[in-house]
């Protein structure tokens, strides 16, 4: 072999082959006569490992005898950084953790901060409804990526095209409402950053009307599709006992038949006022999880519709001026900017308003000392936040119990003893997002 | 310092932090007179009965079942704190595994899910600087519970919950990685987020953020850890 990028070298533990997409026979040919045990490093840069996930697989032929995960390639120290920023700035950090479900990260954090502040009951109704609506839209966009990338990794490229195409519809709504497609830092302690812009409700209504037809495209293509079922049915099996001991939540748990959903069992943001079903399957496999995600998208659309009906005019931030973010944004000539009315108030009319604005924006508000745990049902399972305050204007410690992190522990249980090709299907059915795993 | 300021006869508070001054200025003279201000911030203190309807039931159940699992309330429970409508049971490290087994196996408790462990570093609490905080959820009884264990920085060893809740595997590795708490009995306690050869434990309070100043249009914004911190 003369390929300089795909060479072979000796180590103390055996020969190492670098695979670069060349003819597989050249590897197996060269490896002939080596030990019977092959350890394959799949990732962290591999198109079908669902992000920078490194899978260390020990193979016997095509059978996986041991599977281990290597994570940490996307660790960015978000939790540490938050200890040096104000409570409100924390939202800007947490939204970047699990980048496919930013609104859930924000909501879990804000619910915790509000609990510490003791203002949970004071969050305006409109803010609550908007939060639920954004979270449910986010669940749709996240599940669409799960279907899209999951399909792509198994070679179903049409599923990828469909999934990402439909997701654009939802991302357009995010952009319309928050100004950004992702990392929007929209949900803030005390409410949401700003009210829905003019025409947003109609646009969301239109999307809710058009999306079911498009979901049907995906469903028609993959549900009961013999190739898709051959790749996913019975693959990545994990039963209820396995889920409980490994702490697995979300669609993986619901695929075992247990209807556990925090929106029902520990409602937050007024979820007890919405009607929806908890979708379950009993197959405990990758196909069941796929069906659950499809069904959950429909339920989410249902909730979004109820949100639109519940929306009443009103404030979107708590009344307490010691907590509520003082500035309001508006669309200027360059597409962004501060509300001119607010600038007029603080720069021309009220010295106290200026001081107040300055204090709240630079210093922030203090949060009583103590600790809370708040959890939301993210598209991947229980997203929990443990927040510790030292009574200051910055978090003392914020820790995310990310469902991707916990669920990824099931890789070994799902993959060992199966075929190497099934590893892809099993990991895709967990739907880990490495931004959340590594934080 | 914090002990000196607490009047004689008062219970020793669990201090989170001690603040001096009022406006975050250090180095230059503070002419406001507030510079000499020292305030101690404690975490919520231990609660006494009644804890509140839903909490009393759980505590009674735990106290009644602990002997079945080879421990007792006197040996295991240090104190119980009710704050922000959540209950934290402080457990002695030596009894942690038996306590967790009680939570998992006792039919009246049935905390099926361990939601992981998180470390918190309190440098002011001499002899109990490192805290490990566990969250449990019972799907059967629709409850959550927090268990807190403290350990001295000098000998940061806690028993691993891996044998009771296998999900603690990665969570304990992460807590070891970030705080240096060693979980005895964990099958392979290695770093998980940081590289294997990393020095130090980044989430501890004595570990610097390592921020660098940002230059923008000729001006320099100090690194986040160098910026003024208001009290």
Give the topology, please.
The complex is a heterodimer of chains A (439) and B (231).
Chain A: E1 8-11, E2 14-17, H1 24-31, E3 38-42, E4 54-60, E5 63-70, H2 78-82, H3 87-94, H4 102-117, H5 125-153, H6 157-178, E6 187-188, E7 191-192, H7 200-222, H8 226-232, H9 240-246, H10 251-254, H11 262-265, H12 286-310, H13 340-349, H14 351-363, E8 370-378, E9 381-389, E10 395-401, H15 403-407, H16 411-415, H17 420-430, H18 434-438
Antiparallel strand pairs in A: 1-2, 3-4, 4-5, 6-7, 8-9, 9-10
Helix pairs in contact in A: 3-4, 4-5, 5-6, 5-12, 5-17, 6-7, 7-12, 12-17, 13-14
Chain B: H1 2-5, E1 15-20, E2 38-42, H2 53-65, H3 73-76, E3 77-83, E4 86-91, H4 96-105, E5 113-121, E6 130-138, E7 143-151, E8 157-159, H5 168-179, E9 182-184, E10 214-216, E11 219-221
Parallel strand pairs in B: 4-7, 8-9
Antiparallel strand pairs in B: 1-2, 3-4, 5-6, 6-7, 10-11
Short description:
The complex is a heterodimer of chains A (439) and B (231). By secondary structure, chain A is of the alpha+beta class.
Explained architecture:
The complex is a heterodimer of chains A (439) and B (231). In chain A, 47% of the residues lie in helices and 13% in strands. Chain A is α+β, with helices and mostly antiparallel strands. The model of chain B is unreliable at 1-7 (pLDDT under 50). In chain B, 37% of the residues are buried. Chain B is α+β, with helices and mostly antiparallel strands and 231 residues long. In chain B, a hairpin with an 8-residue loop joins strand 5 (113-121) and strand 6 (130-138). Chain B has five helices and eleven strands. Classes of the chains: A alpha+beta (439), B alpha+beta (231). Chains A and B meet through helix 2, helix 9, strand 8, strand 9 and strand 10 of A and strand 1, strand 5, strand 6 and helix 5 of B.
Order of helices and strands of chain B: HEEHHEEHEEEEHEEE
For the largest sheet of chain A, list the strands in their spatial order.
3-4-5
Largest interface: A-B, 51 and 50 residues
Average pLDDT across residues of chain A?
A: 88
DSSP strand count of chain B: 11
State the end-to-end CA separation of chain B: 18 Å
Residues in helix, % of chain A: 40-55%
Biggest sheet descriptor of chain B = 5 strands, mixed
Number of strands of chain A: 10
């Amino acid at each position: 072999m003369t390929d300089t990028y795909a060479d072979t070298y000796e180590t103390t533990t055996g020969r190492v082959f670098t695979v670069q997409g060349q003819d597989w026979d050249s590897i197996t040919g060269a490896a002939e006569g080596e030990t019977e045990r092959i350890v394959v490093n799949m990732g962290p840069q591999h198109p079908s490992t669902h992000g920078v996930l490194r899978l260390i697989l020990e193979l016997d032929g095509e059978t996986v005898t041991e599977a281990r995960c290597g994570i940490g390639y996307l660790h960015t120290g978000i939790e540490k950084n938050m200890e040096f920023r104000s409570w409100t700035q924390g939202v800007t950090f947490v939204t970047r953790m699990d980048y496919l479900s930013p609104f859930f990260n924000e909501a879990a954090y804000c619910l915790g901060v509000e609990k510490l502040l003791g203002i949970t009951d004071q969050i305006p109704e409109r803010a609550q409804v908007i939060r639920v609506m954004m979270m449910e839209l986010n669940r749709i966009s996240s599940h669409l990526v799960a279907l899209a990338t999951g399909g792509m990794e198994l070679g179903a490229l049409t599923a990828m095209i469909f999934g990402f195409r439909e997701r654009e519809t939802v991302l357009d709504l995010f952009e319309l409402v928050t100004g950004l497609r992702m990392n929007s830092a929209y949900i803030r302690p005390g409410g949401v950053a700003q009210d829905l812009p003019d025409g947003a409700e109609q646009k969301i209504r239109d999307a809710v009307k058009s999306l079911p037809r498009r979901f049907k495209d995906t469903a028609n293509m993959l549900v009961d599709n013999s190739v898709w079922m051959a790749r996913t049915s019975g693959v990545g099996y994990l039963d209820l006992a396995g889920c409980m001991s490994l702490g697995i939540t979300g669609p993986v748990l619901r695929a075992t038949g247990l209807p556990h959903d925090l929106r029902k069992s520990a409602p937050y943001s007024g979820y007890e006022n919405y009607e929806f079903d908890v979708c379950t399957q009993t197959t405990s496999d990758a196909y069941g999880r796929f069906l659950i995600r499809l069904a959950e998208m429909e339920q989410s659309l249902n909730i979004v519709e109820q949100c639109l009906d519940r929306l009443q005019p009103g404030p979107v931030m708590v009344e307490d001026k010691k907590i509520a973010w003082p500035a309001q944004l508006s669309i200027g000539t360059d597409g962004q900017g501060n509300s001119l009315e607010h600038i007029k108030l603080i720069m021309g009319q009220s010295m106290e308003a200026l001081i107040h604005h300055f204090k709240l924006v630079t210093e922030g508000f203090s949060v009583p000392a103590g600790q809370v745990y708040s959890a939301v049902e993210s598209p991947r399972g229980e997203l929990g936040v443990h927040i510790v305050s030292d009574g200051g204007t910055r978090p003392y410690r914020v820790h995310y119990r990310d469902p991707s992190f916990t669920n990824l522990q099931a890789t070994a249980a799902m993959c060992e003893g199966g075929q190497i090709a099934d590893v892809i299907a099993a990991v895709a059915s967990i739907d880990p997002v490495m931004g959340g795993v590594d934080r | 310092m914090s002990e000196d300021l607490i009047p004689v006869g008062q219970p020793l508070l669990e201090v989170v932090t001690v603040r001096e001054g009022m406006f975050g200025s250090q180095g230059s003279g503070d002419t406001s007179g507030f510079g000499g201000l020292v305030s101690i911030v404690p975490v919520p203190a231990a609660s006494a009965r009644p804890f509140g309807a839903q909490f009393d039931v759980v505590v009674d159940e735990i106290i009644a079942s602990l002997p079945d699992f080879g421990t007792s309330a006197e040996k295991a429970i240090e104190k119980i704190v009710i704050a922000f409508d959540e209950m934290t049971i402080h457990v002695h490290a030596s009894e942690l595994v038996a306590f967790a087994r009680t939570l998992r196996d006792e039919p009246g408790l049935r905390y099926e899910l361990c939601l992981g462990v998180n470390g918190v570093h309190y440098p002011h609490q001499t002899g109990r600087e490192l805290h490990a905080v566990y969250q449990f959820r019972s799907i059967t009884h629709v409850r959550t519970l927090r268990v807190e264990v403290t350990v001295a920085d000098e000998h940061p060893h806690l028993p691993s919950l891996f044998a009771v809740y296998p999900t603690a595997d990665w969570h304990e590795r992460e807590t070891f990685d970030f705080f240096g708490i060693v979980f005895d009995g964990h099958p392979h306690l290695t770093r998980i987020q940081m590289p294997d050869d990393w020095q130090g434990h980044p989430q501890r309070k004595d570990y610097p953020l390592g921020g660098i100043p940002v230059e923008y249009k000729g001006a320099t914004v100090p690194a986040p850890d160098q910026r003024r911190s208001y009290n």
